Amino acid sequence: MCTVFLDQGEFCEKCAEAIQSEAFVSKQSDSLNRPEPEKLRSEPDQPPTPQEKRKDKDRVYIWLGIGTSAAMMCASMAIYAFPNLLEDPAVLAARAEEQRVEDCRLVFEEITYVLQAGSGSVESMTCASSAGPNQVRRIGNVVRVDHPNPSAYGLSEIYVTNQSHQVFLVDGESS
User: Fold this and answer.
1) Taking the mean position of all CA atoms in its chain, how far away is CA 72?
2) Which helix (H) or strand (E) element contains residue 38?
3) Model confidence over 16-28: pLDDT tens digits?
4) What H or E segment, with its residue span, contains residue 142?
5) Between the CA of residue 90 and those of 70, 82, 87, 101, 103, what are the distances in Å?
6) Which of 47, 84, 87, 130 has the CB geometry, 3.0–4.6 Å to 126, for a possible disulfide?
7) What is the tens place of the pLDDT at every residue in 119-162?
8) Exposed (0-12), middle (13-18) or buried (19+): which is 4, by Cβ within 10 Å?
């Protein structure tokens, strides 16, 4: 009735307890005496195994991939955030000047709509670089509105009439 069945066989309670204690102590002793994986490689006279070499090589490739990806993402974000960073300053200045002329052209196009509708004051509708109010002239039933200082845009004339929606930008060379 007091028989204990273990993997090693059948024992009385006292013997079974001693065998189980001995097995437990042996397992604990083995785990304490077993060197850690990092300590196995601490001896310089042992060459790395092929598996260790492959793991090291894989780590290098993984970190290279991560580093390259991070560098590409940073470069992409810099280009997105500062698109004009690498452009020639002369090109940027020319583009800014073209934008100023286009902004003024849009103001004068709006003036044509006001002229054709026949309502509102066009003298106060001025471009950003205007030195004063627009000059309005009537010749019969034609109303012409001139920019007060077109030379600010490198032009000799900027004008519109109530006859069309066209904005006339006259170069200094073509007059």
Assistant:
1) 11
2) helix 37-40
3) 899 889 888 888 8
4) strand 142-146
5) 33, 17, 9, 17, 20
6) 130
7) 777 777 888 878 788 888 888 888 898 888 888 888 899 999 88
8) middle
pLDDT reading at 164 higher than 60: yes
Cβ 4 vs Cβ 16: under 8 Å: yes
- The mean pLDDT of 4-9, rounded to a whole number, is 86
Alpha-carbon distance of 114 to 108, in angstroms, equals 10
- pLDDT score at 68: 96
Q: Reduced to 3 states, what is the DSSP secondary structure of residue 14?
A: helix
Classify 165 as helix, strand or coil: coil
CA–CA gap between residue 126 and residue 134 (Å, rounded):
7
10 Å CB burial of residue 152 (0-12, 13-18, 19+) is middle
**What's the one-letter identity of residue 79?**
I
Q: What is the pTM of this model?
A: 0.50
Distance CA 94, CA 37 (A): 66
Integer Cα distance of 102 and 109 in angstroms: 10
Cross-strand pairs, 168: 159
Q: Does residue 175 carry a pLDDT above 50?
A: no
Residue 129: Cβ-neighbour burial (10 angstroms; 0-12, 13-18, 19+): middle
Hey, CA dihedral for 31, 34, 35, 36, is it positive or negative? Answer: negative
